[in-house]
Design brief:
transmembrane, alpha+beta, Helix Hairpins, MdtA-like_HH, coiled coil
Amino acid sequence: MQNKIKKSYPVIALLSIGLVVVAFLWYFEWRNTESTDNAYTQCNFSVLSPKVSGYIKEVYVNDNHVVKKGQPLIKIDDRDYLYKVKSLEASINGLNATIESVTRKIELQRDIIKQAKANIDKSQANLDLSKKDYERTKHLVKDDFTPQQQFDARKAGFITAKSDRLSAEANLEVQKKQLQVLEANLKEAQAQLEQAHQSLNQARYDLENTTMCAPYDGVIGNKSAQIGEFITTGRPALSVVPVHDTYVVANFKETQIMNMRPGQKAHLTFDTYPGKTFVGRIDSLSPATGAQFSLLPPQNATGNFTKIIQRVPVKITLENSSKEWDLLRPGLSVFVKVDTRSTPKA
């Protein structure tokens, strides 16, 4: 019996050592580490759609092509847009000529008004003189000092002078109204010119948008545009994926994030590189659980309730530079371990 007990001592010792090691690891390592395999690589890629409609004339890229920022991707037939630009430019030239002509007419009309005012002054002077002659002759004819014929002539001259004065005033009013018409025509032409300039700017913008360019460096994917087809505004044509801006979104359980802070270190293992560990940092924690951002958020106010542990998305950015990152693509699986003891980076 004693021999059996003695033989069990090594086993008990090994078990004790194992328990101590496990306890040590749990206390100093495992309890401060949170991990999940519910994590994937992501990036903010763009789905490009044309801003103008038309037939596709050229497609300069294919799927998986590497492109640079500003590089032409698709060319839409621009003949209609070019014709519109030329037409509006011709309209603007015509309106400029009209404005110049009306401006000259206004200047001339103002000179005519000045002359009309001078004619009023002249006709007033003639009227005053004719009135004096008429009044003087009128007294003289009563005393038979002046022949009746001379009086009649003075009277006719006075009436004519009054008529000339009224005509001069009427002519001035006519010329003023004509000036108002010309000024209204000028304002209308200027408004049309402003509208034409705005239309021309829009037409030039549309013409420029007949060439679709890459918004940033990246790789082409999901290309659906083909030469010769008619593409409408807003229809997806292709995607540009900025593979160098890849990051990781790890969906941790709500029970795991209590001690997580932005800046803490994370160790990442990609299925693409089994056995190789990358280093990252927590960038941010989502303001809500993933379920809250779903198309139909759960409603637990009525009916039976089954508690389900929720998951909170945590964004992790890659820290160290590596050429192997060039092979990382959005959607890859990742195993993430976060050391909650690590001091967040300032």
